[in-house]
């Protein structure tokens, strides 16, 4: 698959999924519309849920390393269909940050996870339809330890002051809303992307040291970051 197909095919699938769920205005009589709606509802086919686990790796971190080489994050995901078009999702990973500037140095390390569900808007008109248009909700948690081994504060009146900040911990709980696409490019091999926004619920931190980057959430100073994630996934079937 070419790079243009990778971006255009998910967008095309997303548009089709939205169209399939949009209301249709008809010029038919109310009674006829009701009869046809009943017939369509009666003919909906729900295929049995096949047991599987889909394992994914977030490749967005590769681009982040180019833009922010001080941030190193590794993230994996697991999902499985638990009911027709409903998917349970578990995501998690680890984070390391190390930066040294002329006036300070900063390091942190920690872990994070998210748990929730996705709903497939596209449906499955046939059992072999494996392209997904998803809306999702997650609960997220992140914990890290960080420190500033040295810093220097310049003041024209009092002069320069140097010091350090001892290791401290930081934890964050948040809600995450997402929309995205997973498309099968080869048998059981998927490419996907998500657009996610996150809202902080509660936070425990050292008031003297703000985290530079929070694993699974984003930059520590942002209250509701919006981020895009790209993934490569493989589906392991159990039948």
Structure description:
By secondary structure, this protein is an alpha+beta fold. It has a single domain (3-237), classed as Porin (Beta Barrel), CATH 2.40.160. Helix content is 16%, strand content 55%. The protein has three helices and ten strands. The chain has helices at residues 3-20, 30-42, 60-67; strands at 52-58, 71-83, 86-100, 104-120, 132-153, 161-186, 189-204, 213-214, 218-219, 226-237. The strands form two sheets. It has an eight-stranded antiparallel barrel with strand order 1-2-3-4-5-6-7-10. The protein has a two-stranded antiparallel sheet with strand order 8-9. The longest helix has 18 residues, at 3-20. The relative contact order is 0.18. Residues 1-8, 10-18, 20-29 and 37-42 have low confidence and may be disordered.
């Amino acid at each position: 698959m070419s790079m243009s197909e990778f971006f255009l095919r998910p967008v095309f699938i997303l548009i089709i999924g939205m169209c399939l769920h949009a209301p249709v205005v008809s010029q038919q009589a109310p009674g006829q519309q009701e009869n046809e709606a009943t017939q369509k509802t009666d003919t909906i086919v729900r295929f049995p849920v096949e047991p599987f686990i889909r394992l994914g790796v977030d490749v967005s971190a590769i681009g982040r390393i180019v833009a922010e080489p001080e941030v190193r994050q590794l993230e994996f995901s697991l999902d499985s269909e638990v009911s027709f078009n409903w998917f349970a999702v578990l995501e998690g990973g680890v984070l390391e940050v190390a930066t040294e500037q002329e006036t300070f140095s900063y390091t942190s390390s920690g872990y994070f996870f998210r748990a929730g569900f996705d709903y497939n808007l596209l449906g499955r008109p046939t059992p072999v339809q494996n392209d997904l248009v998803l809306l999702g909700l997650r609960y997220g948690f992140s914990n890290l330890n960080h420190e500033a081994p040295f810093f220097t504060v310049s003041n024209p009146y009092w002069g320069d002051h140097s010091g350090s900040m001892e290791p401290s911990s930081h934890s964050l709980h948040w809600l995450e809303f997402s929309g995205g696409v997973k498309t099968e490019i080869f048998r059981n091999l998927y490419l996907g992307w998500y657009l996610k926004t996150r809202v902080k619920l509660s936070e425990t931190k050292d008031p003297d040291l703000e985290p530079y980057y929070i694993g699974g959430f984003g930059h520590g100073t942002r209250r509701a970051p919006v981020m895009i994630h790209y993934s490569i996934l493989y589906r392991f079937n159990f039948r």
